[in-house]
Structure formats: structure tokens, C-alpha cells
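Input chain follows. Return C-alpha cells only.
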Amino acid sequence: MAKYSVVVPVYNSENTLEELHARLASLFDEKYDGDFELVLVDDSSKDRSAQIMHELHEKDKRVKAIYMARNFGQHTALLCGMGHVSGDIVITMDDDLQHPPHEVEKLIAYLEQTPQMDVVCGQYESKKHSAIRNLGTNMTNAFTSYIFKKPKTLHLTSFRAMKRYVADALCKFTESRPRIGHMLLRTTNRIGNVTVEHNARQFGKSGYGFKRLVKDFFNNILYNSNLPLLVLGYVGVFDVFVSAILILYYLIRYLVTGYSVAGFATQVIIMLASSGLILLGQGIIGHYLAQIVSEAKKGPLYTIRDKEID
């Protein structure tokens, strides 16, 4: 059994996997007597990533190679990898070398020197993402702070280290759209930060384009909060209040002047606005009901096609 487990979700990373393994092996051989395992989870890549994972496993038995049956997403792949670790400390990082392997030492040192903490996340000196990616990250952080009461000074990133019992607790979640950061906040409040480097992407493009970021932002709202229902409730209360004021105004006007309100256009506008609000509310409620049905089915979170573990 290894003391340290590094879990990496892999997707179309044929250009970086060998260097990632070499740099991690060099770090752990030099600093930790080689006492580590590298858990690579192929999220149904379309390039040669799976073949390279197989070759790395054949060359270094500390490499565990897991191949998923289809693309389940980064967070699900991470949970799959966490379910196959043996280390006391579990490190998660990306496969594109934007997380420098030598910075893993800072994460390990933080956890070992502050035993009261359960998790440490790398806080980037400067993020080498695109402006759109950074905007999406900032919006997600603001939402997470509001919904999960996350301290604004705490930065949740995918470059993190955690104690084994936290990883085991994360694997017990059964929700169909897992988000590791949100799940960590529901598991422990002993989370810290340590400053690390963040490299520019060397190969390919990030999968988090504008469309993906917008979709993820609204999915986070719909799948992790009742915020839309609260907003509809407040709009409904405001609508009732305005309606009551208008009724009172028109009644007083009729009693004082004796004139009734012609206001056909006003009535049409109010009816259209109210109908639109009702339909919007029904759509949001229907989305929540569909989510409940999906969660109640309790299908497998992921499917493993094959794995190479010694």
C-alpha cells in the first residue's frame, strides 16, 4: 500500500501523460522514497491516451490505469479514481500540466504540518486561463459562497490534497451530477489554501468554453440550490403587492371621480406578464421534478470498461 495516491482524470491527453508521470515519479522518488501510486482514469478519450496509460502501467506498476465505458465527466472520473486509492493522503490534479507536479510537495507539507486540517487546495499565484474561463470561475465561486456559506477567502480548485477518510466520504455520495468542491463543503469545514504556481496550457484547448461555462453555472444553480424557486416566490409577492396597490388606486379613483378605468391595454399587459410568470414557474418546478426522478432511479454513477491494477 502506498502512502500517497495521486488521482488524475484523463481526457485526450496523449501529449502530456508521459511527462506528467515522469515528473511525479521523480518528485516522489527523490522526496518520499517512491512511496506513491498514480491513479489514471481515462474518461473515454478519443486519442491515444488509453494506450499511453497501458504503456505506463506496464513500465511502472505504481500506475493504476482505469478505463471508463463512456465520457462521464471530470468529477465522476475523480470519484472513480478515489474509489481505487490505497494512500493515506489523496492528491487530485489535472492532466494537462497546468498543475506543476513539483507543487504537490507544498500540498503534502501543508496537510502534514497542520494535522487539524482535512483538505488543502492550491491557490494560484496567477491563473493562466482565458478571460472567459476566469470569469466563469469567479461566478461559480460567488455562487458557492452564497449557497454553501463558503468563506470568500477560501479558494476551491481541482489541485488539492485530502486525507483518506475525506476521499472515502466523497465516494459515498450518489448524486447524478457530482461536484467535488460542493461535496467537500458538505463533508468538512477544515479546508485550507496554499499558494502554488499555475502553468499555461501547452497543448490543445480547454474543454471549458463559453457555452460550457454558462451551462455549468446554471446547472450549479438548478442542481445545488432552490434559488430559482426563491426568486419566483419574491417576484410573486412583489406582483401581488403591485396588484393590490393598483386595485386600491383604481377603486379610490372610481369613488372620487365616478369614472371607471378604460385600461384595456393595461389589463392585457398584466395578464401576459402574469401568464409568462406562471409558465416560467411551471418550467422551473418541472425541472426540479425531473431532477428528483433522475436521482430516485439510482443508476450507476459510472461504468468501468477495464482496469489495470497490481
